Amino acid sequence: MRLLHTSDWHLGRSFHRVSLLQAQRAFLDHLVRTVREQRVDAVLVAGDIYDRAVPPLSAVELFDQTLHRLAGLGVPTVMISGNHDSARRMGVGAGLIDRAGIHLRTDPAGCAVPVLLSDAHGEVACYGLPYLEPALVKDQLGAEGTGHAAVLAAAMDRVRADLAQRPPGTRAVVLAHAFVTGGTPSDSERDITVGGVASVPPETFEGVHYTALGHLHGCQTVNERVRYSGSPLAYSFSEAGHRKTMWLVDLAADGSVDAERIDCPVPRPLARLRGRLADLLADPDLDRHTGSWIEATLTDPVRPQEPMARLLRRFPHVLSLVFEPERAPEDPRDSYAGRLRGRTDQQITEDFVAHVRAGRGPDQEERAVLAAALDQVRLGEEADR
């Protein structure tokens, strides 16, 4: 069986205030064309179809058009909701849409009810695990803990229990939206840390033949049976080095996996330039970036006059300008943003406590209170969806 694995479309998202709607439309045209030309048997979309819970009308219309095109090809499509999606909104009408071969899986209660696909070698049970917010689903799933690993383990126990009752030789595929240990994040994913712990061990998905992951925006292989497709477009300059692709997965009769990357259209390459303004304007080696979207980091000790206007004359698509003056190591004037880069919400709040208490950080009980407060904020955001 041939599967096309994609995720993290983020329909409705812009890139530094530049609309990506046409680029997203071009990607979805490419996806439909790939389904047709590669004789794909089923499409797997592992969450974050939209960029926010209430997407703009243009994004909803694009999604609707794409569903009609996929249904018109007669190719089953299995989709799960991600942490950016509103599961309740996306799940409206799922029962009716299901009859057209578009299978929306947004309810955690249905994680062990597979979409049954078939080929000449028998059935493939395709289980959709929507994004599972631990505080909202742990009791429903009977999880033994409060983190992502616990709720996904409970969901996978249900999947394996259902699979055990199916005919021998049934192949199994799982879609999930999570941060799996071994994956590499970028700057454009929303933090899903709960109690300071977000990662899920890949062993959670043992017992199935292929796990189609969403959430991380870089295409990557956790192991041969557990993969991220990544986002089809770059959504931050941290993705400048990404090759944006989908996975074309051939699932053999014995459950073995052969996967190939299918490149996605690139609307405009990304470039991160760094140096003094005069050097960036004069360096002939940078001519290749005149057509790129650019993040320029200026290291001049003193801020130059009209830096953006001067850069735009050479690089018409500069979108981000950052100032990081050259300074001695440990200079106390190092930017606040730079000190926070790469740190979790928990680490930032603990550092703040230490700062206001003259270096005395929170004890174990206080750290637990901070973690609970952060989880409550996140839970409130999810409940509003």
From TrEMBL:
GO terms for molecular function: exonuclease activity. Residues 267-355 form the Nuclease SbcCD subunit D C-terminal domain. The keyword Ubl conjugation does not apply. Gene3D superfamilies: 3.60.21.10. Residues 1-88 form the Calcineurin-like phosphoesterase domain. InterPro entries: Calcineurin-like_PHP (IPR004843), DNA_Repair-Maintenance_Comp (IPR050535), Metallo-depent_PP-like (IPR029052), Mre11_N (IPR041796), SbcD (IPR004593), SbcD_C (IPR026843). The keyword Nuclease applies. Keywords: DNA recombination, DNA replication, Endonuclease, Exonuclease, Hydrolase, Nuclease. It comes from the Bacteria. SbcCD cleaves DNA hairpin structures. These structures can inhibit DNA replication and are intermediates in certain DNA recombination reactions. The complex acts as a 3'->5' double strand exonuclease that can open hairpins. It also has a 5' single-strand endonuclease activity. Belongs to the SbcD family. NCBIfam families: sbcd. Heterodimer of SbcC and SbcD. PANTHER family: COMPONENT OF ATP-DEPENDENT DSDNA EXONUCLEASE (PTHR30337), NUCLEASE SBCCD SUBUNIT D (PTHR30337:SF0). This is Nuclease SbcCD subunit D. It comes from Streptomyces orinoci (Streptoverticillium orinoci).
